[in-house]
Every structure is written in structure tokens, then in C-alpha cells.
Write a structure and sequence with these properties.
- By secondary structure, this protein is mainly alpha-helical.
- Helices cover 60% and strands 2% of the residues.
- It folds into three domains: 3-109 and 183-296, Fic-like fold (Orthogonal Bundle); 127-164; 304-362, Arc Repressor Mutant, subunit A, CATH 1.10.10.
- It is built from 16 helices and three strands.
- α1 (3-25) packs parallel to α13 (266-298), α2 (30-48) packs across α4 and α2 packs across α11.
- The chain is globular and about 60 Å long.
- The two termini are 40 Å apart.
- The relative contact order is 0.14.
- Residues 111-140 and 168-177 have low confidence and may be disordered.
């Protein structure tokens, strides 16, 4: 593409992202903004993949207070949420290293020892699952049978825990009719890492957009396509373009028109992701201004309150979660659900469900 077609959108995206990051750096609600946007971006990531995850269900699932049995889509959204939190809490360049990728995928790095786990093997795989037939030389036949049964149980528990946690399945557990056995994820991940290392001479926003395109072309993972968007945000953080936060690229992509979001060709796709970064930064600025204004308004209710009042803690809770139920407030503040409803009534937070029971409140 001609540079003239990229220069203006790139400049706009760089400027908006820098202004958002600088405003968050000195903001009094920075931690709350980050905590809330993690939920928004995780739900947006599933939306881009064609799956609908309600924000209320994701918040309750994260608090281990599910109102119903978690769906597969909900566990995937929670996986995205945990990945964002881990990247945001780690050093800036951690996610782009081999160790960081292994940690995000729940796998182990290759080691020099011959008895160590092989490359990218899931961490929770026990030695007995790798070699169920292994027994001590002096064990009896009954002990061997008992050991084999325990190994089988360990394998089932391990696979079930991985599925519930939303982690990628190990190569030995993949279904051949769904996953390609010849898909070399390790080699593809290394190819993608080599590609992004060649982007160091590009501006941060342009490098992040190019990294997403490289991820789409290489397709390193068969069951975690969402990781490319999160890693692109990590590139912006590693390049010091977003020091105070982890950009929400999925929120930006969701805000774009459908025709722009599904543009074809490398050039149009590059512009799409640049515009998505700009849209995410613009939405982040709007949300920050709206939430800090809401905090000032809520703090008016603290006049004349006792020092032991739970209202300040409730305000902080409402700023760090997209929505809250009476049970969630009671759990976080260590009070009864009835007391939580009384505090909400005193605070005057908007009720968003319109129901008489199982209600939830939020700062919009």
C-alpha cells in the first residue's frame, strides 16, 4: 500500500493510544479501569469469533459464583480474561518470549534432560500418565494393577481440569477428526516469533497490526486463534507505547463497521487493525472520563459517614467490576446479602436487569 494511505490512520492511532496511556498513568481509577476493560475485551474476543458471552455470566464465573453451569464459550472467555491479567501483571516483554508463550498455553519448555517432559507438554501431566506401565521392580501384580488404575484416574482428572480451565488439550488427547495431527504448532509459533522480531524497525502500532496479520497467515494454534490479538496488545506494551495498560484490541475491532472488520487483502487488513487500535483508545478515553465522573458523584454519599462504613469499599468495588450482584457484593465486602442491598440503595447505583429478583447493578 502507498505510505500516504497508512500515515494518517497510523498517526491518529499512535496519538490516541499515547493520550490514553498518559491519562491512565496518573489516574486515580487506573486499576479499576484496567480490571473492567479486561472483562470487556474478553467478551469482545468471543464476540469476534461468533460466540455470545454475557458480561454478567463472565463476572460471576470469575468470582466462582456461577448462576448456572458454565458453557464452553464462557470457559473460553475466562481463559482470555486470565491471559490478559497474566500478561498485564508480568514484565512488558514476557508474553513474547518462548517462556511466556508456554505459560499462556499451559505448556512446558523443552529441557536438556532426557527424562524431562518433551517440548510444549502440558504442565499438569503426571509421570504416570506419560508412562502408565512404569512400576518398581519389586512391586507385586496387584500393586501394578492398582497403579495402572490410579494412573488412569489421574489422566481423566487432569484432562477434565484442563477442559474446565479452558486450556488447550495436549497432543495425545486431541481428536483426529477435529485437529490436524500434522499441524506443527511449535514450528509455527517459532516462525511467528521470528516474524515479529523483524518488525522492530516499524512504529509500535504498525508492528502490532502486522503481527496480527502474520498470526492470521501462519495460524500457529488450531484452538486458540484469540491469542494473536492479545499478543498484539502485548507488543504495544513491550514497545513502551502502552506502559500503563494493556490495550483492548477486541473492543476496538468490535466498534468498527462490519465492512471494515471483514476487509480482505493484506493492505486493507493492516488498516483495519490500525483503526481498531485507534477505536479502542478512543473508547478507553471515553470510559475513563465517564467512570471518573461517576466516582466523584458517588463520593458525595460519603459525607457524614462513619470511618467504619462499607460505602467507600463498595464504590471501589463498583469501579473495578462491570456489574455486581448482591451475592457478589456480600462476598467481596464480607457482609450479608441484605446489607449489600441496603448499601446499594444508599449509593443509588443503577440496576440494569429490570428484575425483582437476581438483580445486578453497574456503573454505566
Amino acid at each position: 500500500m502507498p505510505w500516504s494511505e497508512i500515515a494518517v490512520p497510523l498517526t491518529i492511532a499512535e496519538d490516541r493510544l499515547a493520550r490514553l496511556d498518559e491519562r491512565l498513568r496518573t489516574s486515580s481509577i487506573r486499576e479499576g479501569w484496567i480490571a473492567r476493560t479486561h472483562f470487556y475485551d474478553a467478551a469482545g474476543s468471543l464476540w469476534l469469533d461468533g460466540e455470545l458471552v454475557h458480561l454478567e455470566d463472565l463476572v460471576l464465573h470469575d468470582a466462582a459464583m456461577d448462576a448456572r453451569t458454565p458453557t464452553h464459550e464462557l470457559t473460553r472467555a475466562h481463559t482470555v480474561l486470565r491471559a490478559r491479567r497474566r500478561i498485564a501483571s508480568a514484565p512488558a516483554d514476557w508474553a513474547l518470549t518462548q517462556e511466556g508463550l508456554a505459560g499462556l498455553l499451559g505448556r512446558e519448555l523443552p529441557t536438556q534432560s532426557g527424562s524431562a517432559p518433551t517440548s510444549w507438554e502440558p504442565r499438569d501431566q503426571k509421570h504416570r500418565e506419560r508412562d502408565p506401565a512404569f512400576v518398581e521392580p519389586d512391586e507385586s501384580a496387584a500393586d501394578q494393577a492398582w497403579a495402572a488404575e490410579l494412573a488412569a484416574i489421574d489422566a481423566i482428572v487432569s484432562r477434565s481440569a484442563a477442559v474446565l480451565a479452558g486450556e488447550a488439550a495436549s497432543p495425545s488427547n486431541r481428536k483426529p477428526d477435529i485437529d490436524d495431527a500434522d499441524w506443527n504448532e511449535e514450528a509455527r509459533l517459532e516462525e511467528w516469533r521470528d516474524d515479529i522480531q523483524r518488525l522492530d524497525n516499524l512504529p509500535p502500532v504498525l508492528a502490532a497490526a502486522a503481527a496480527i496479520i502474520a498470526w492470521e497467515n501462519i495460524e500457529p494454534l488450531q484452538s486458540a486463534a484469540w491469542l494473536g490479538r492479545v499478543l498484539a496488545a502485548a507488543i504495544l506494551r513491550a514497545r513502551d507505547k502502552a506502559r500503563a495498560h494493556l490495550p483492548c484490541l477486541c473492543v476496538g475491532l468490535r466498534a468498527l463497521p462490519r465492512e471494515t472488520r471483514f476487509a480482505r487483502g493484506t493492505g486493507p487488513r493492516l488498516l483495519t487493525f490500525i483503526e481498531a487500535i485507534a477505536a479502542a483508545a478512543e473508547q478507553g478515553l471515553k470510559d475513563h472520563d465517564r467512570w471518573i465522573l461517576a466516582r466523584h458523584q458517588l463520593e458525595r454519599h460519603l459525607a457524614g459517614r462513619r470511618s467504619t462504613s462499607k460505602l467507600p469499599a463498595l464504590i471501589e468495588l463498583m469501579l473495578t467490576t462491570p456489574l455486581a450482584s448482591a451475592q457478589l457484593i456480600a462476598k467481596r465486602l464480607d457482609i450479608t446479602p441484605r446489607a449489600a442491598q441496603d448499601l446499594i440503595a444508599e449509593l443509588g447505583v443503577r440496576e440494569i436487569t429490570g428484575r425483582g429478583r437476581y438483580r445486578a447493578w453497574a456503573i454505566i
